[in-house]
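Lab meeting, item 3. Inverse folding demo.
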């Protein structure tokens, strides 16, 4: 009996050690599994951008900014050389046109995303075909012919803007904005937006007809009217800035983007 009891005790101790070892082994396996799972989770997380990624993104952004459209605006001071335009030996239209066209050009050069060009910068004669070709070859987005008016009726006064006979939304918006902006500076009267040709609404001025882009003629008062001349002399720089403001607005508002062919 003693021998049997001793064997029973030994068997129970042996079984206890085995169970303890198994339990420890299971715990070790669980710990290892947990550790592996934690490592896999970290490796599976979304990669955070490092310095290289930031630089790459900045480069892409800069490249996108560099491809922003620059609008080419052609400023055309009317007449020049032997073609004095309206006026007389005391006052020539060609001189007044260049005075305020130069300020328009200088103002546009200051504006973001605008490249201004001028048909003439001195007392040079150009015919309308040369002027239109200059703008067309440059692929201008907008053409501004800057003039002053004249009438045998000395009481005739005010500003007006001429656009093409088959006027588009762009033409009408441009003409309206220009007349309103000039009126704000101060004019005797606003003669509004005129379409076509003087006394002939079925035709266009050559310079409007021959240019490929939206075009208008700004008549900044009558050179034959003393009060209009006084207003011009006092305000021509402010008139020019107002014109530049309208052009910039036409560009930033997208009116000159993706236009259908003019002809």
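The presenter then showed the designed sequence:
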């Amino acid at each position: 009996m003693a021998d049997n009891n001793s064997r029973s005790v030994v068997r129970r101790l042996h079984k206890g050690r085995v169970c303890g070892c198994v339990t420890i082994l299971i715990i070790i396996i669980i710990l290892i599994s947990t550790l592996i799972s934690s490592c896999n989770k970290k490796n599976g997380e979304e990669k955070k951008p490092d310095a290289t990624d930031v630089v790459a993104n900045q480069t892409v952004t800069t490249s996108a900014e560099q491809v922003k459209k620059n609008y080419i605006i052609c400023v055309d001071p009317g007449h020049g050389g032997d073609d004095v335009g309206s006026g007389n030996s005391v006052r020539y239209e060609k001189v007044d046109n260049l005075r305020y066209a130069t300020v328009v050009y200088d103002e546009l050069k200051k504006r973001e995303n605008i490249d201004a060009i001028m048909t003439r910068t001195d007392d040079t004669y150009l015919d309308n075909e040369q002027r239109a070709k200059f703008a067309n070859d440059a692929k201008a987005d907008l053409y501004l012919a800057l003039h002053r008016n004249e009438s045998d009726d000395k009481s005739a006064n005010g500003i007006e803007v001429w656009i093409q006979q088959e006027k588009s939304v762009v033409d009408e918006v441009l003409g309206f904005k220009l007349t309103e902006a000039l009126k704000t500076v101060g004019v005797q009267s606003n003669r509004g937006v005129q379409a076509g040709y003087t006394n002939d609404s079925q035709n266009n001025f050559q310079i409007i007809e021959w240019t490929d882009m939206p075009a208008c003629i700004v008549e900044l008062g009558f050179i034959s009217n003393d009060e209009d001349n006084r207003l011009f002399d006092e305000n021509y720089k402010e008139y020019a800035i107002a014109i530049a403001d309208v052009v910039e607005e036409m560009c930033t508002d997208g009116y000159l983007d993706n236009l259908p062919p003019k002809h």
